[in-house]
Write a structure and sequence with these properties.
By secondary structure, the chain is α+β, with helices and mostly antiparallel strands. It folds into two domains: 15-130, Rieske [2Fe-2S] iron-sulphur domain (Rieske Iron-sulfur Protein); 136-346, Naphthalene 1,2-dioxygenase Alpha Subunit, Chain A, domain 1 (Alpha-Beta Complex), CATH 3.90.380.10. The protein is 21% helix and 30% strand. It has four helices and 17 strands. Strand 12 and strand 13 (201-211) form a beta hairpin. The longest helix has 36 residues, at 338-373. The protein starts with 14 loop residues before the first strand and ends with a helix. The mean pLDDT is 94. The chain binds FE2/S2 (inorganic) cluster and fe (ii) ion (FE2). FE2/S2 (inorganic) cluster binds at residues 58, 60-61, 63, 77, 79-82.
């Protein structure tokens, strides 16, 4: 069976992360151009700090509004000077008094939560803030969270599959998040997880017990040190991945909560925004709770995850190139594809529901036009 790349690639009615809140300042030239799920958008802040997200495409001749000029709450296209309000409506056409009612650009609901900027790419009336994923932001007083980001030239579904299967830590990340020793490889490739299906994703929890320190920590502990690790991962569409990761000194229990000493209580919050079918922007963080933090610890976590994601990127970019060259090439499934299969089931169900709703709306529209055009009897 070939790796499935659906014709309809992106869920529309979903929140997509456009970046960290500090990516859009109050600066006079702070117009942030992004491509989200194939749509070009521009983001800017009004003088009151509120964010505006509009299509990065002037309704006159498709010039880039991200090359425009902020004027109070408004944005002016710097090709022929048309000015748009924050609701996308044209408010001025220099040299012309009449403003056509079609003179407007599309705007998108935009929300800031946990230091991430979220844009709703679907029907504005369906924008539901409760669907924004839980995350721990860098301004949370209980955590010392460090942030970063990365561009990856790969389809976001390859990222979904990668994040839904942590057995790859044993191989891709043997010099960072994993460790090359047989105990760690064995533990990561025989994970016994508890998975719960969610409305828009999955929650997975498991223990890995009595293993040596991960490669990035080995210089901090004697070689004989052993740890119990707990993973609690919530993954939601389109590609949000929130991990509560705790490390304990190895205890005696083989089931349930470790009775070792808690040495690190951390959150890593990650969201992947597809630019289009061929690349993504990856916004991520990692940090320790204030109760387990040490000077330099959270910085080390951020440095490690940056290094680890370069390891992922090198695998996924090469994989993406091959999938694009031969999309119908047969592939096999193995046990470690189960998590990805569950996430794709959720994603594909939403994609199918949106396709069906659009089809029904189109049929209803066609029916209305036919009735309107029918001769009166
Ligand atoms: S293209 Fe924007 S004003 Fe002409
Ligand atoms: Fe990875």
């Amino acid at each position: 069976m070939p790796l499935k790349m659906p014709e309809r690639m992106f869920v529309r009615n979903a929140w997509y992360c456009a970046g960290w809140d500090y990516h859009v300042s109050q600066g006079r030239n702070a117009l942030l151009a992004r491509k989200i799920a194939g749509e070009r958008v521009v983001l800017y802040r009004k003088p009151d700090g509120g964010l505006v997200c509009m299509e990065d495409r002037c309704c006159h001749r498709q010039a880039a509004l991200s090359l425009g000029r902020k004027e109070g709450d408004c944005l002016r296209c710097m090709y022929h000077g048309i000015k748009f309000g924050p609701d996308g409506a044209c408010v001025e056409i220099p040299g012309q008094t009449k403003i056509p009612h079609k003179a407007r650009v599309r705007t998108f609901p935009v929300v800031e939560k946990n230091n991430w900027i979220w844009v709703w790419m679907g029907e504005p009336e369906q924008a539901d803030e409760s669907l924004i994923c839980f995350a721990v932001g860098y301004d949370d007083p209980d955590w010392n969270i460090k942030t970063s980001e990365m561009h990856v030239d790969a389809n976001y579904r390859l990222e979904v599959a990668n994040l839904a299967d942590l057995s790859h830590l044993a191989w891709v990340h043997q010099n960072t998040l994993g460790a090359g020793d047989p105990a760690t490889v064995g533990a990561f490739t025989t994970i016994q997880d508890e998975t719960t299906m969610l409305e828009r994703g999955i929650n997975t929890r498991y223990w890995i017990r009595n293993v040596p320190a991960n490669a990035f920590l080995q210089h901090l502990f004697p070689p004989e040190a052993r740890f119990d690790l707990h993973f609690d991962i919530t993954m939601t569409v389109p590609c949000n991945w929130i991990l509560h990761f705790r490390a304990f000194t190895a205890g005696s229990r083989t089931e349930g909560e470790s009775d070792g000493e808690l040495v690190a209580d951390t959150y890593t919050c990650q969201t992947i925004c597809p630019n289009d079918e061929h690349s993504v922007e990856y916004y991520f963080s990692w940090g320790a709770s204030r109760t387990t933090d040490l000077p330099g610890l959270s910085d080390m976590l951020r440095e490690t995850v940056e290094q680890a994601f370069l390891e992922d990127a090198s695998v996924l970019e090469a994989q993406h190139a091959r999938v694009m060259e031969k999309p119908q090439h047969p592939t096999i499934d193995i046990i470690h594809d189960a998590g990805a299969g569950k996430m794709f089931w959720v994603l594909d169900r939403l994609l199918q529901a949106e396709a069906k709703a659009e089809e029904e709306a189109a049929l209803a529209g066609a029916g209305r036009s036919a009735r309107a055009g029918a001769p009166a009897c």
